[in-house]
């Protein structure tokens, strides 16, 4: 079974090693548990039951058919090391251990870790499992071949960014995501859902839809349905400064349906780009000072001239009336290159995972 969160800490330290229960209250004050074959059964409520917190994104997948389908779609090979994020109590982990050479599971909740260790040991797979009990966003991953993960909404973007833009190389990442988030990830130029997330991820990877999963398949059920997608890193990646690209798309997709001409005529945006182009890391143009006589730059004059340069790039290359949401990766990369050649830059201070 998959835990729906890995990035936030769990306050409760209640243990349930004896019963290995997956808990969900119902109108009859009973609790759902699991058997070794993955079938869900009803058990009476016990004081030491493992209570799952919706507020923490803890939703465990219980449907054996769907778990099997995820493993099949992941194309796990007998020689693979699989990175599993949020293993929970281990239903998916057990299936991955049967198919793979080794599984590295990242899990923050120590209650889940204890249950997982016991369950794996009972099946004789302990030599094939490594558990990392840390926050997945703050953890350096060991080497792995592919990823299987069930990601809570609140860390979906930074975790996808960590996988796609991180230093680890891998074959594929099969991710169970909130349905709305997966649709945004799958969107293409011209789609109403096309967004900065999709344009950044698809710069370096291809994204494929696998299947939808009903909210009824989770314990406890979340409010919305989920979808499985597969992310495959591209073999050939574009030659672009990643920080510059990410800052550029943040600027363009802040108002993705406005024309570029309208967007870059805004005084605030012009002054911001002027400061970045003058000093590289200054974020406030009023801080820019001329060398020598320490005279503050005349922002009105400089901004006016700089705006002409920006609009000139757009006009002369046919981008003035185009909208970011309609542009392909090739067009966006070309525009960024044209801006940089004209001395117009977008990135300043280092970004963290939430800026992707």
Automatic annotation (TrEMBL):
Which positions are annotated as binding S-adenosyl-L-methionine? 59, 61, 86, 107, 135, 150
Which stretches are transmembrane? none
What PROSITE patterns does its record include? RRNA_A_DIMETH, SAM_RNA_A_N6_MT
Organism, as annotated: Brassica napus (Rape)
E.C. no? 2.1.1.-
Looking up Pfam families in the UniProt record yields:
RrnaAD
- The identity of this protein, by name, is rRNA adenine N(6)-methyltransferase
Keywords attached to this entry = Methyltransferase, RNA-binding, rRNA processing, S-adenosyl-L-methionine, Transferase
Question: Which top-level group of life is the source organism from?
Answer: Eukaryota
- State the family it belongs to: Belongs to the class I-like SAM-binding methyltransferase superfamily. rRNA adenine N(6)-methyltransferase family.
Protein's UniProt keywords contain Cell division: no
- According to the entry, every stretch annotated as the Ribosomal RNA adenine methylase transferase N-terminal domain falls at 66-235
């Amino acid at each position: 079974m998959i835990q729906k969160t890995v990035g936030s800490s769990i306050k409760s330290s209640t243990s349930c090693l004896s019963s290995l229960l997956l808990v969900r209250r119902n109108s009859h004050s009973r609790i759902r548990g699991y058997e070794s074959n993955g079938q869900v059964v009803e058990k009476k409520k016990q004081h030491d039951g493992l209570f799952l917190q919706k507020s923490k994104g803890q939703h465990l997948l219980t449907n054996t058919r769907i778990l099997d389908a995820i493993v099949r779609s992941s194309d796990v090979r007998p020689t693979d090391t699989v990175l599993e994020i949020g293993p929970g109590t281990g239903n998916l982990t057990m299936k991955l251990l049967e198919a793979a050479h080794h599984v590295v599971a990242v899990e923050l909740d120590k209650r889940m870790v204890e249950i997982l260790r016991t369950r794996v040991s009972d099946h004789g797979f302990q030599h094939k499992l490594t558990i990392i009990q840390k926050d997945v966003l703050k953890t350096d991953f060991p080497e792995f071949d592919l990823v299987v993960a069930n990601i809570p909404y609140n860390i979906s973007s930074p975790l996808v960014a960590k996988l796609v833009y991180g230093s680890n190389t891998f074959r594929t990442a099969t991710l169970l995501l909130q349905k709305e988030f997966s649709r945004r990830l799958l969107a293409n130029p011209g789609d109403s859902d096309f967004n900065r997330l999709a344009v950044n991820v698809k710069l370096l990877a291809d994204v494929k839809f696998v299947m939808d999963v009903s909210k009824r398949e989770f314990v406890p059920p979340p409010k919305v349905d989920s979808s499985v997608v597969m992310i495959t890193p591209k073999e050939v990646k574009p030659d672009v400064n990643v920080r510059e690209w990410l800052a550029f798309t943040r600027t363009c997709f802040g108002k993705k349906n406005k024309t570029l001409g309208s967007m870059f005529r805004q005084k605030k945006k012009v002054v911001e780009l002027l400061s970045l182009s003058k000093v590289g890391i200054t974020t406030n143009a009023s801080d820019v000072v001329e060398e020598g006589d320490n005279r503050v730059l005349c922002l009105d004059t400089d901004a006016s001239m700089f705006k002409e340069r920006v609009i000139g790039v757009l006009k002369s290359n046919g981008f003035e009336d185009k909208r970011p949401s309609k542009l392909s990766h090739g067009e966006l990369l070309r525009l960024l290159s044209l801006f940089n050649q004209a001395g117009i830059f977008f990135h300043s201070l280092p970004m963290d995972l939430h800026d992707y």
